[in-house]
Amino acid sequence: MGGWALRLAVGIYVLMLTVTAGHANEVNHCNAARAKTCSECIQIGKGCAYCPDEIFEHERCDLKGNLEALKCSRMVTAESSRKIEQNVEINQSLKYSQVAPQLMHMTFLPGEEKEVEMEVFEPGRGPLDLYILMDFSNSMSDDLDNLKKMGKELADLVGDLSDDYTIGFGKFVDKVTEPQTDMRPAKLAEPWSNSDPPFSFRNVITLTNDTDSFRQKLQRERISGNLDAPEGGFDAILQTAVCQEQIGWRQHSTHLLVFSTESAFHYEADGANVLAGILNRNDEQCHLTSDGKYTHDIHQDYPSIPTLVRLLVKHNIIPIFAITNHSYTYYEKLHEYFPIAELGQLQEDSSNILSILRKAFENIRSKISIRAEDRPKAVEAKISQSGTFSEYGNFKITPGEIGKFTVRLKALTQVGEVPVCKTNPADRAGTLRIKPTTFSSALKVNAEVLCLTCDCEKTPVKNAVRCNGHGDLVCGKCQCYEGWLGPFCNCSAGASTDSAMCIAPGKTELCSGRGDCMCGTCVCYNPNQFEGPFCQFDKSQCQRFGGFLCNERGSCSMGRCVCTPGWSGDACECPISEDSCRDSKGGICNGLGECKCGRCECKHSGLPLSPTCEANFQQQLGMCEGKRSCVQCQAWNTGERKGRQCDNCPFKIIMVEELEEKDKNVIETCSFRDEDDDCTYHYTVNYPLNMTDKEHRVLVKKKKDCPPAGFLWLIPLIMFLMLLLGLLLLCCWKYCSCCQACLALLPCCGRGRMVGFKEDHYMLRQSLLTSDHLDTPMVRTGPPKSTDIVRWKVTDNVHRGPNHPQNQMKPNPNETIQYPVSLRLNRQYSETLSHLESRDTDVLRREVEDNLNDVFLQIPGAQRVQKTRFRTQRNSGKRQNNTIVDTVLTAPRASYPDIVKLTDKQVQAGNFRDLKVVPGYYTVANDREAAGAVEFQEGVESVDVRVPLFIKDEDDEKKELLVQAVDVPVGIAKIGKDHVNITVIKEHARSIFTFLQPSYTYSRQDGVANIPISREIIEDGRTQVTYCTRDLTAKDKKDYISVDGDMSYGPGETQKTVPVKLLELGEGDSLLEDKQVKQFVMDLSNPRQGAKLGRYPRTTITIADKPEPSIVMFKKSTQTYNTADPLYTIPVVRTRNQESPATVYCRTNKASRFDISSPLKFAPGETEKNFVIDPRAYPSPIIPETFQLELFDPSNNAIVGERKTTLVNVIDGRGDGKIQDVQKLEMANQVATSPGGRLYSPTNIKAVATGPKNIRLNWNSSPKASGYKVKYWIYGNPEADAQVLDVKSPQAELTNLYPYCDYEMRVCGYNALGEGNYSDIIQCQTLEDVPSEPGRLAFNVISPTVTQVSWAEPAETNGVITSYEVIYIPIDEGKKPTGPSKKVMIDSPKKRMLLIENLQPSQTYCYKVRARNKVGWGPYREATINLAAQPTRPMSIPIIPDIPIVDAEAGDEYDSYLMYSNEVLRSPTSSQRPSVTDLTEDQFVNGKWDQNFLFPGGSSSLSRNVSSSSSTYSHSTPRPAATNHSSTTTYISGKGGLTTHTCIHDEVTLRKRSENRHYTDGDGVRDSIVMGNLSGGFLDSLDSRFNPGVPETPSRLVFSALGPTALKVSWQEPNCETDVLGYCVLYQLINGGEVKRIEVNSPAQNSVVVQDLLPNHSYIFKVKAQSREGWGPEREGVITIESAVDPKSPLSPMPGSPFTLSTPSAPGPLIFSALSPDTLQLSWEKPRKPNGDILGYVVTCEQLHGGGDLRSFQVNSNAATSLTVSDLKENMPYKFKVQAQTTQGFGPEREGIITIESQDGGSMSQYSSQSVTKREVFNLPTEISSHTMFSEPFVSSDGMMMMSSRQVTESGGSVTRQVEMVQRGVVSSSTVTKRLERQYFEA
Predict the structure, then answer these.
(1) CA angle, corner 483, sides to 481 and 489, nearest 5?
(2) E strands of 152-298, at which residues?
(3) Phi, psi of 860 (to 5 degrees)
(4) 0.70 cut: is pTM over it?
(5) At 233, phi and psi to the nearest 5?
(6) Other C-beta atoms lying within 10 Å of the C-beta of residue 1547
(7) Which region among 513-517, 981-985, 1537-1541 has the lowest average model confidence (pLDDT)?
(8) Does the N-terminal peptide bond of residue 123 adopt cis geometry, omega within 30 degrees of 0?
(9) Burial readout 1735-1769 (b: 16 or more C-beta within 10 A, e: otherwise)
(10) What letter would DSSP give residue 999?
(11) Residue among 1817, 1803, 1829 at smallest CA distance from 1853
């Protein structure tokens, strides 16, 4: 083909694209879908058609009407169908339930909606089947007797209810097996005297209409019996439902099942878990013999509740539960699970059962529940009655009349996240059964969603001539082969074509600068953002509504919004549905207006109307002022309307002698002063006589009230002065206007030129941002004849109030930060500058940086610029081809104003030294604000402001930026729209694979949970991720079927779904006993091909049944109104389950004037409604009275709360009128704002704490508000959890708050148009209150005379605890004091432990502890301990750091006996008094202990970690018969190294502790561990120091939880003789892995946030500081984020709070017993906080120093807490770890190190004893050194040979505690060992 032919073809194509662009305004949902094939087009939905003509120059996929207008000769369309196949009219003479029509066939296109009118008939006295099922356990004997007596009355009652009835009877007890039944032969024969043998269920009387036979058989029945309280009634209910023939249920009758019992019930899993051998689930089959006996009671389990619900609904059976008071609450919850069920409370002897049956039957007949069963997933069904939809399908019906209902069926466009035409065909078609749940008849609809394909796609033309032989012709469109392009496949991909084809008319750039030109066609760079034949349309620049693009109800296509079905408008802001315009009668705008854009536009009327054009009397209350001028002019020809304007008044007044009294016809009584004569006139505004009239009646009193004369002469003088003042003001105004007009006429000046931002607001989502800035258009109007330069500035986080915590943190002015700077160079941009490595780029970069560095040297502390880049700026007028340079300047934070001034000065000068820049453009920014300028050249009307968005990790979830136009330094334009707000909604997902939500809820009835996995494509391609489910409270194969596998994604795929099958309610689960809901989790792991896990790598799935019902009740128990009130408005509130609609009926009781009963309907989300009574709507006069309102008959998803009634008091409203007048004025000010307007937020809000539980708020009143709402919540909680208080005045009193708690509050006003804007957050802290009692007391009896008592901090401190008081009293068995009480005052609130010595042996003591804060003392916590009952222990007293020690024999004053352990040295055990042992001079400094000797390195604060090395001073005490011993002092540093000093001492006992809160329980010797904080390498001496100038160790590490995977690490600045330059943070998993490094370049920053950590994994963190002299030593800490819960769960850690454990805590201390040289027994205590049921333990064992295999043991029992381990080696240290497991996962480990040391030879060989040494490690150590000491054996007084061994093992970065195990052996040739039991008394 020649070149001319190619140009001709391309030209035709471009012409076609131009025509298409010309029709851009006609874009609709068909062509906006961009269907590529014919089949895709007709599958879009209703109205879409495809044109397969070969020659067709328009969009082929379009609306059918458009294609016909464009002369498409043949079209491919898809049409749905609808056909009624069976419609037998309802015959009301037939006495059974009917529906019409009965059968229909319907097909749908995706998204199509159709309605079906359905009629339902329930006869007034239709056929009735009543089956009574009664508990026959012995406790129901009196009930059976009464039922026998009432046999005739029961039959008569059934006869009254129906003309065609049957009645039957069945009885049940329980399964005939243990433990439910006594299986002794005598009891099996007769469990009680005169009783029948036990049984499970028997059908005694089949349904019959022979009442005589029924009574006779009933008389023969005897009671039976069983053992346990719950009965087997569920077995009986199931058999009654499924055994249709045996019971005798009839097809067309109403089926009632009366269930009578006084006991609770067994349900599924009770049989499997309790009864031996019954393991099978209930098979739901009939197992009755011919005589009605149930045969499978001992072969299968009880049925579940969902099973009963499903089977009763299936067989149209309505249960009526008649329950006595004992078990009423169980069945109160149970009956709510049934669509229709009734519940009545039986008297103890069932004497009221007949009244229960009658009332239940009446309630049932007035209700109907219509549901769509067997619905395909792709079809949605809704049922409505009179335009009202019910989510649960519950409606009212009148028996004997035909009820009309509307069934709305809609074909979905997506099933889950999958397009409907890509789902399983079985999900798109099926037969719906729309039926009342109690009817056997139903409307069946064969529904199918059509997904048709085009026949033309089946016959493509291969190598078509129209496609130049390079493609196939399919449905009129060429599908090109590989390598060919163009609409006719006439352009090779490698061929060069005329680029002029890619330039839009009137433009100069190829493809608008947004794409490449290929074969004469534009291929846009980013098709997701740019589109059009010349890439001229930006998908982000369509109209916005409320800040959202296309109101998020449509998509941006070809420059305009294409709305989703149901929405219209330029920004898709208008709903097509008229539902929002419906008035209270169901009409549209009350017939007085038109519904436009979802709002009523009412016709002109003098009457104020509501938004739906109904009479709104509350809006008429301010009309006195509006009618004032017309009254004046018509009555006395005065006022502002006097003269001809009076003719324009819309109403005519009526002059009367006397005004009517205030009654129901008078709206307002008005009084005003006439300015002309200073007299007061009076008139009333009355309702019109005819309500159709458009105007009110105005009655005017003829006589005015005039004051006495005396000051009338002042009136002319005042008028003259006002006239003179007006003339002066007029002259001034004319002069100014003239001067301004003259200036505007000058050639250099433009008239009326304005500059300002184009938009008011932008709403951005962070996840969709492609850059860190936003190009914000600024426009200029008026004559663009010269240049205007506009300065602008940006402020970040303007939504934060001055009291926001972030704003309270003042930044360090000396902090060095980065300043991005942008300038426009005086040179054209070339393509080579976009390549960073090119020579031109490098040369220009050096030139720019050299010149900028010379200029910015003027800024103190400024560093060289870096990161220099070059670009262009789009939409910058005539300068858009100039080069923009972006660079970064580093300087102190305080230099920002100087940098802005210097940059502005140099830009206006046009140079930075030798670097030429274009004046009028620059940007300077930091991390909080920015400033700059833009230039409007002559003829330019729009430029972009490049606004930085300051995106940071610590941003709020929703932040706002304020962009302001500051001034116009060059030019005469004035600033119009001077600001624009930018809102950035933060979305954390930054990686690829994530769940869309952290949790999902699915109903069991759905049968499957479709869990979507989303993929955010960064770089397209194939990728894969692994998914798997894991049990929480839900169990695999009982509640759901677990799944695992790999999910593969192809190119372009963004979301897939994992189906998880849900099972019916499984064993062990109870819906009625407040058990946990069933949950499991799904985890994502192992992303491949470069993928990462995003925000939600785990999601929690909740298997839900029917939601908890709403609670509806009156807001107040009493209401007071007066006779003058026009309306009585009674508020009704709703709590719980507010997402669904609910209905409750309200009626009056004992009201003299009216009898009202009407429904009150809550829409989804509504929490409060008003029941409004208009007392004037009733003819009798209004009088004072008292009546009651009652709530009753709630919908199935609601219950009535405790305030089901309210008392309404109507008092006499006649008084002095002052209060009423004030109320009138207030109400007159409450005028609604203009349509579409919102109230501004209240101002001048002040919050003051008035008590520990009260806060008072005041604010300025808003004249347009009819009320206010106050939201308040605890600081740190999400605002979504806030409580809302509704008040009518500008003040509020918050009550029932927590004492000493920070609260946040916001206030908004509201009126008839809705809520206004909320104010900024106000913070206030409640006052302190006395604390609650301390936590429970715990005791550790050290010896018969020494007790350690400890307690927990009060649960509610209600302030700052300042001290504690401990009282202990000796008491006798009667708890009477036997001695004086003693008090101990503990002034330090951190010391919650007390050691009491010299107590009386074998004495009982009573202990009392209370806490005090600034307010005063709280209540006592009391406990008693008997020392005689405590075991004797051969251990000496442990000394705990900083624990108060008191002497029980000392005096009664506090200070006489209160000492602290770090101030005393303990004497030997025989002493009763503390004594101080002399220290050597080396250990004293100036008369005090050398702290470096006792506390090397100082002290530290630990937060779940240990950031210290440790040193140990140890000294053993000589035993009797011992001649000497050695003392070893060991110092261990963090990096290793060991120094040991050995010396000999004689009876010297030294004991001293550091500040660390860790101690040794039960030391066997009288010495202690000193834990210090050595912070570097090995200490050669105690006085070693670091080099001068090198920073010391950061003084502490603090860890704060930010979530299950995020952590904030903080530290304190170390001491350093020179300036600290920065820090380095290193961290890695403690068991190895990659070491990650975070550089902190600012010395003022002392914290970092670490993301993407693994929950329940231990990490080691190291922090060090740097100066010019080098790096200092590291501070080290170990931390574990212990969490297994969803981040949004209430159990998740709050940001900055201590960690919350959902997994169990660590097991108790490990205790070892040596059984042989190679075998030991390990035991432990259960976790103190199991946080659930313990399933078992995992024990691991490995050699401490490596070598050997890791051994693991599973202990699968909650009760088992010990394990025997064999095959160990002597003298080999082993490390043991024990973890507990619950349904939430594994908890932290308890770790211990043990060595079995043998004694061979020497003097010890004859005893052959084994010594066991044990050490507990709280955190895994980095380096370990140990030293073992043995004392010589000695013989005790009781003839036992004793020895002790102790191993002191210390490590860097860990806290250890040692326990000495003492062995006793009999002095003989054989060895006998015995382990001493150790008692633990933990706090």
Answers:
(1) 55
(2) 165-172, 201-208, 254-261
(3) -60, 135
(4) no
(5) -65, -25
(6) 8
(7) 1537-1541
(8) no
(9) eebbbebbbeeeeeeeeeeebeebeebebebeebe
(10) E
(11) 1817
The answer to whether 1785 and 1733 have CB atoms below 8 angstroms apart is no
Spatial separation of the C-alpha atoms in residues 1574 and 1822, rounded to whole Å: 14
DSSP, collapsed to helix, strand or coil, labels residue 1494 as: helix
**Would you state the structure tokens that stand for residue 859, as one six-digit string?**
């800024």
Q: Which residues pair with 1697 in a beta bridge?
A: 1601
Two tokens, residue 1427: 């020392």
Q: What is the DSSP letter of 1703?
A: S
By CB neighbour count within 10 A (0-12 exposed, 13-18 middle, 19+ buried), where does 80 fall? Answer: middle
pLDDT computed for residue 1883 by the predictor: 28
Distance CA 887, CA 900 (A): 14
- The radius of gyration computed from the CA coordinates of the chain, to the nearest angstrom, equals 44
The CA distance from 291 to 768, in Å, is 72
Q: What is the 3-class SS of 828-844, one letter each residue? A: ECCHHHHCCCCHHHHHH
**Beta-sheet strand order (sheet of 1762-1765):** 1711-1716, 1719-1723, 1762-1765
Q: How far apart are CA 1445 and CA 1550, in angstroms?
A: 17
Q: CA-to-CA distance for 1674 and 1663, rounded, in angstroms?
A: 5
Residues 523 and 505: beta-carbon distance below 8 Å: no
CB 1817 within 8 A of CB 1852: no
Please check whether residue 96 is in contact with residue 253, taking contact to mean a CB–CB distance below 8 angstroms: yes
The rounded distance, in Å, linking the Cα atoms of 1608 and 1599 is: 6
Which CA distances in Å does 695 have to 299, 335, 651?
81, 55, 6
- Count the helix, strand and coil residues of the chain and give each as a percent rounded to the nearest 5: 15, 35, 50
Cα dist. 1864→645, 1273, 1715, 1718, 1871 in Å?
A: 118, 62, 14, 19, 10
Q: Which two tokens stand for residue 304?
A: 């579940």
Give the range with max mean pLDDT: 16-20, 275-279, 763-767, 1317-1321: 1317-1321
Tens digit of each residue's pLDDT (9 = 90 or more) over 345-385: 888 777 788 888 888 787 777 667 777 777 888 888 888 87
d(CA 470, CA 72): 26
The token duo for 653 is: 């007044």
What's the rounded Cα separation, in Å, for the pair 931 and 922? Answer: 8
What six digits make up the tokens of 835?
Answer: 């390549």
Q: What pLDDT band is residue 35 in, cutting at 50, 70 and 90?
A: confident
Please state, in angstroms and rounded to a whole number, the distance separating the CA atoms of residues 1318 and 1301.
23
Residue type, 1186: T
Cα(1158)–Cα(1145) distance, rounded to whole angstroms?
Answer: 6
3-state secondary structure of 1686: coil
Count how many Cα atoms sit within 13 Å of the Cα of residue 1836 in the half-sphere of its side chain: 12
Beta strands (DSSP E) in 829-914 are 866-871, 882-892, 911-912
Q: What whole-number distance in Å separates Cα of residue 256 and Cα of residue 207?
A: 11
| For helices 211-219 and 151-161, angle between their N-to-C axes, nearest 10 degrees | 150
Q: Write the DSSP symbol of residue 1143.
A: E
Write the DSSP assignment of 641-682 as a string of letters: TTTGGGGG-SS-EEEESSPPPSSTTEEEEEEEEETTTTEEEE
Please tell me the distance from the alpha carbon of residue 683 to that of residue 674, in angstroms, as a whole number.
13
Flag whether pLDDT at 1557 surpasses 70.
no
CA nearest neighbour of 1049 among 1081, 1028, 1030, 1027: 1027
Q: How far apart are CA 777 and CA 796, in angstroms?
A: 19
Is the previous residue joined to 1242 through a cis bond, with omega within 30 degrees of 0?
no
* 3-class SS of residue 845: helix
What integer pLDDT is reported at residue 1682 of this predicted model?
A: 55
Residue 1276: CB atoms within 10 Å: 12
Residue 1220 has pLDDT above 50, yes or no: no
The dihedral sign for the CA sequence 528, 529, 535, 538: positive
Check: CB of residue 67 under 8 Å from CB of residue 38. no
Encoded amino acid at 220, one letter: R
